[in-house]
């Protein structure tokens, strides 16, 4: 007869401990695998998000570059149009000066009258362009618009008053194009 080993309670406890240790290892292995899968999924999501952000950044950079180029073209076009408008106004004056010089025989009176007409036309062209003259005798001296090239002692004129204008100044709006060259009384 074969003797059967009797299982003692200690032996069954060891078997149970081995089973729980194996189950714990399996659980630990499962948890580790789940954690790896979870981390892998998060990594893939982060990579997808990064790729999406990079594409958006590239699109934004391209849009900005296009905007910058378009703005530069528009700026150049506006400048060219403004220059063309200014030249167009001055061309009429140049044409009249050429006509005056083409006259072979004319009196001094006719010549003076023609020059006065050309000057009036030039003033009208400057007015149309928004250019205003500055620097009149009797004005208070203002270093923001006048360039004092000489001083004179004149008690009748008062202090810091323009007594003579050597060259008129011009401005568009508040921007000075050319300062008026003047003589100032002290």
UniProtKB/TrEMBL annotation:
Keywords, sorted A to Z: Chaperone, Coiled coil, Cytoplasm, Stress response
Lineage, highest ranks first: Bacteria, Bacillati, Bacillota, Clostridia, Eubacteriales
Listed GO biological process terms: protein folding
Record's keyword annotation contains Coiled coil: yes
Pfam families recorded: GrpE
Ranges annotated as biased composition (Basic and acidic residues): 1-10, 34-55
Organism annotation: Hydrogeniiclostridium mannosilyticum
Function: Participates actively in the response to hyperosmotic and heat shock by preventing the aggregation of stress-denatured proteins, in association with DnaK and GrpE. It is the nucleotide exchange factor for DnaK and may function as a thermosensor. Unfolded proteins bind initially to DnaJ; upon interaction with the DnaJ-bound protein, DnaK hydrolyzes its bound ATP, resulting in the formation of a stable complex. GrpE releases ADP from DnaK; ATP binding to DnaK triggers the release of the substrate protein, thus completing the reaction cycle.
Residues annotated as signal peptide: none
Any one cellular-component term (Gene Ontology): cytoplasm
Residue segments, region Disordered: 1-55
InterPro entries: GrpE, GrpE_CC, GrpE_head
Matching HAMAP family: GrpE
Keyword Chaperone attributed: yes
Coiled-coil segments on the chain, per record: 87-114
Family: Belongs to the GrpE family.
PROSITE patterns xrefs: GRPE
NCBIfam families linked to this entry: PRK14140.1, PRK14160.1
GO MF annotation list: adenyl-nucleotide exchange factor activity; protein homodimerization activity; protein-folding chaperone binding; unfolded protein binding
Name of this protein: Protein GrpE
Main location: cytoplasm
Quaternary structure note: Homodimer.
Localization per Swiss-Prot or TrEMBL: Cytoplasm
């Amino acid at each position: 007869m074969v003797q059967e080993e009797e299982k003692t309670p200690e032996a069954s406890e060891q078997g149970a401990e081995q089973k729980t240790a194996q189950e714990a290892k399996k659980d630990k292995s499962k948890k580790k695998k789940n954690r790896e899968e979870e981390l892998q999924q998060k990594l893939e999501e982060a990579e997808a998000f990064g790729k999406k952000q990079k594409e958006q950044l590239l699109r934004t950079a391209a849009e900005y570059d296009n905007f910058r180029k378009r703005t530069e073209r528009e700026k150049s076009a506006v400048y060219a149009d403004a220059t063309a408008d200014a030249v167009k106004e001055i061309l009429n004056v140049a044409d009249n000066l050429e006509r005056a010089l083409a006259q072979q025989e004319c009196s001094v009176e006719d010549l003076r009258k023609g020059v006065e007409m050309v000057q009036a036309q030039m003033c009208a062209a400057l007015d149309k362009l928004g250019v205003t003259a500055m620097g009149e005798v009797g004005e208070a001296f203002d270093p923001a618009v006048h360039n004092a090239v000489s001083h004179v002692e004149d008690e009748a004129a008062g202090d810091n008053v323009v007594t003579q204008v050597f060259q008129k100044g011009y401005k568009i709006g508040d921007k000075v194009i050319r300062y008026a060259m003047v003589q100032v009384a002290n």
